[in-house]
Amino acid sequence: MSRLTNYLFLGVILTTIALPLAVQAYDVNTLKLAYSEQNQPRIYDAKIEAIKAATISAQTSGRIINIHFDVNDLVPQGASLLEITNKEQGAGFAGAEAELAKAEALNTEAQAQYARYKALFPKGAISKGAMDEATAKAKSSKQAVSAAQAQLIQAKESLNYTVVSAPFSGRMTQRFVEQGETISYGQALFSGYDTQHLRAVFQVPQQDIAQLQQQAQVAIQLPNGNEITSGDIDVYQFADPLTHQHQVRVNLNAADIEDIIVGQWIKVTVAFPSRKSLVVPLSAIHQVSDLTSVYRVSNDKIVLNQVRIGRIDTKTNTAEVLSGLMEGDEIVIDAGRYLINSSATKAQE
Description:
5 helices; four-stranded antiparallel β-sheet; alpha+beta
């Protein structure tokens, strides 16, 4: 009885029958099928993509003298990716510094003159024309200092751009330049993505949208066999004009994505309302090429019965039967063992 008990599951009744000797010379364990409530999760194929990805372009021109990272390298935030010649930018920075010093000196003189004229003008020692000229000179020299400061900031930024740094930590996916190459402003240099912010993207038909919007979380089966959950679900409120399906994005937790790679395919499982269905153990299924069947008891004989299989549950090692069987049918539990035994019996005959 211990062997029989192992096959009691999900409302399916196990019986052991001894078929007539003319048919079988050994006992055959069978299942009497009955409908049972089964969870009906939908499983979608999803692709991993990066939430944050970027292509870095040159912000100045020059010849590349050093490249520090290559494709597939992990790059920390702020790390130097490449360096270009900076003589022109350095000269521009030095010139901007000199222009600022000159503007500040002229401004100091103009402000001092304005202060003197302002003190003397009420006494009549300075004409109105000279006072107006001093006032205008003081204002223009002050503005010249602001303009020189802006030029210095621009020159400093241009000098800083000769060292290209990573805007965020991540993995480099493309390198568009080689050492020694002369680059120009706006030219693409590197592409990469942030490895700590990933999401699963998949398409769902219109009839599944309402159920997806009610989900608190979904289960994600990773390529390594592990399963994680995520409650950060974003369902698009518009359909693709070609496929008429809606895109869904599921953001993944940073702690769960150590072994996930961008571009991988994964499975996303979404819970749907349960329904009554027939299930059979995987051991009962006999697969030959495209023919899926089970061995069914019919009038004290065992016949090969073609079936159509739906969802397979690897946890319980069962499969849902979509067509080919009815409630009350009896099937052989172990199709492989039955086939071996029946072949041996025929050989003895």
